[in-house]
């Protein structure tokens, strides 16, 4: 049986606040992932503290999500929103705040699971002074992201070596797809331990309403063909490709095509530039009438949009995993996605949707038309997608796999520490 000590773990997500509103100010998949695994692991018997950076003075320092799961916001740098690309210099302060919190609460963690490279650096510092296990999930790999960049950002010279050292030295890295593991081996290092455990989704929340019911609730006419995008406004997400593809759709002429681009912040927030750019393209192509920007989608309506859509499009240039396609599939909606990264793992082309080359406007247009032009096939793809999610991508299943990994690593660490304590017998 486990002692309390053994079951106490910390999830460190400096740049992705698990208690944040999703869909704005960089809050996306990482935030959702950390919150969901945190809550599910707590239900499975772990004591979970999730650490993040406080980004506003009025934010609660501690948010209790469940009896054994809370978000703890530490002050590192100014109490203002800062992009994740600007906060590496505050990480030493984050480490000391973490240690101060441990002291003040008189707690220690058997294991920390860090998220994104900034937190991996924090974890590696903590490992130097604490006998803990470190597990890491990258969420995005600098080396892949920078491949398409015209000019390397300054932070690259810090990020790339940190990502390499992390893989080579910590206890275990979790890849969310076989594709991500292959990228790590090819581009980061051939050393270090990698386990594949996918991301998950809430199969009770998504898929509980029918298309007809969802459309009634949203006021979308039954005869319209609805193409959906959900996510942040970030150039990497490739929304431009989708908009241009819809402009080319053969079904556009019939006049019953609707494009819904969900997500985004209030005006003036950090994703505003990309949102303005996309709106500009929509106007330039004359798609204003058929394009809708409902803003951030939340627990009240996100499941309805997924269920109402005929197809969900994920046109990312690069996607390490991608929660949106599995949420759509859980909602019985087929997915057209770029043939990259984790999307190659979650979407089975011709079975649960279609994979097409990234940035290829013609290919996206043809794929969208194939699905919305054949509603019987749409339903078949949708049913197969739901089945795939139920069997591979529920949060319960994912958290169980993580819990098993944590238990094994904690036990291995204990054995090593015990062995180190044994007096050395002279030969
Ligand atoms: N999301 C949301 N409301 C929005 C836009 C996005 O709840 O208006 C959620 C979406 O449902 C998904 C996450 O944000 O759970 C995005 O995750 P994904 O892995 O697809 O992309 P990332 O943001 O990590 O690049």
Compact summary:
The chain is an alpha/beta fold.
Explain what the structure shows.
The chain has 2 domains: 5-200 and 394-421, Glycogen Phosphorylase B (Rossmann fold); 211-392, Rossmann fold. 43% of the residues lie in helices and 16% in strands. It contains 16 helices and 14 strands. It has helices at 4-7, 29-43, 91-105, 116-129, 142-145, 156-169, 178-188, 211-218, 239-248, 272-284, 302-308, 323-330, 343-346, 361-372, 375-392, 395-421, and strands at residues 8-12, 47-53, 62-66, 69-74, 111-115, 133-137, 172-175, 194-196, 225-230, 257-262, 291-295, 311-314, 335-338, 353-356. An 8-stranded mixed sheet has the order 3-4-2-1-5-6-7-8, sandwiched between helices. Strands 11-10-9-12-13-14 form a 6-stranded parallel sheet, sandwiched between helices. Helix 2 (29-43) crosses helix 16, helix 8 crosses helix 11 (302-308) and helix 12 packs across helix 15. The radius of gyration is 22 Å and the shape is globular. Bound molecules: uridine-5'-diphosphate. Residues 22-23, 28-30, 32, 230-232, 262-263, 296-297, 302, 321-324, 327 line the site of uridine-5'-diphosphate. Uridine-5'-diphosphate binds next to helix 2 and helix 12.
């Amino acid at each position: 049986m486990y002692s309390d000590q053994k079951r106490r773990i910390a999830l460190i997500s400096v740049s992705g606040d698990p208690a944040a509103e999703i869909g704005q100010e960089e809050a996306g998949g990482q935030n959702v992932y950390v919150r969901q695994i945190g809550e599910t692991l707590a239900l499975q018997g772990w004591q979970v503290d999730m650490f993040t950076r406080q980004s506003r003075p009025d934010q609660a320092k501690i948010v209790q999500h469940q009896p054994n799961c809370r978000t703890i916001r530490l002050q590192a740098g100014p109490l203002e929103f800062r992009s994740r690309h600007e906060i590496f210099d505050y990480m030493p302060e984050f480490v000391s705040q973490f240690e101060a919190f441990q002291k003040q609460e008189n707690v220690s963690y058997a294991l920390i699971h860090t998220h994104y490279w900034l937190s991996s650096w924090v974890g590696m510092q903590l490992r130097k002074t604490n006998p803990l296990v470190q597990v890491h999930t990258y969420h995005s790999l600098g080396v892949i992201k920078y491949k398409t960049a015209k000019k390397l950002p300054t932070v690259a010279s810090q990020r790339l070596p940190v990502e390499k050292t992390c893989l080579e030295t910590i206890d275990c890295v979790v890849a969310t797809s076989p594709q991500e593991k292959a990228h790590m081996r090819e581009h980061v290092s051939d050393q270090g331990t990698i386990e594949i455990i996918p991301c998950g989704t809430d199969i009770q929340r998504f898929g509980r309403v029918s298309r007809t019911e969802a459309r009634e609730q949203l006021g979308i006419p039954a005869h319209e063909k609805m193409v959906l995008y959900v996510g942040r406004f970030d150039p990497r997400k490739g929304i431009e490709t989708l908009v241009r593809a819809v402009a080319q759709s053969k079904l556009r002429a019939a006049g019953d095509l609707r494009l819904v681009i969900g997500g985004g912040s209030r005006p003036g927030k950090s994703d505003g530039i990309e949102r303005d750019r996309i709106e500009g393209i929509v106007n330039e192509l004359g798609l204003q009438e058929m394009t809708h920007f409902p803003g951030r989608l939340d627990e009240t309506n996100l499941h309805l949009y997924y269920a109402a859509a005929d197809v969900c499009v994920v046109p990312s240039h690069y996607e390490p995993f991608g929660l949106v396609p599995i949420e759509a599939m859980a909602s019985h909606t087929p997915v057209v996605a770029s043939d990259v990264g984790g999307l190659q793992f979650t979407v089975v082309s011709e079975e649960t949707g279609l994979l097409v080359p990234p940035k290829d406007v013609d290919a996206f247009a043809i794929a969208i038309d194939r699905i919305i032009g054949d509603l019987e096939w749409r339903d078949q793809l949708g049913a197969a997608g739901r089945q795939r999610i139920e069997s591979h991508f529920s949060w319960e299943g994912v958290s169980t796999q993580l819990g098993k990994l944590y238990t094994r690593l904690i036990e291995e660490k204990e054995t090593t520490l015990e062995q180190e304590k044994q007096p050395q017998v002279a030969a």
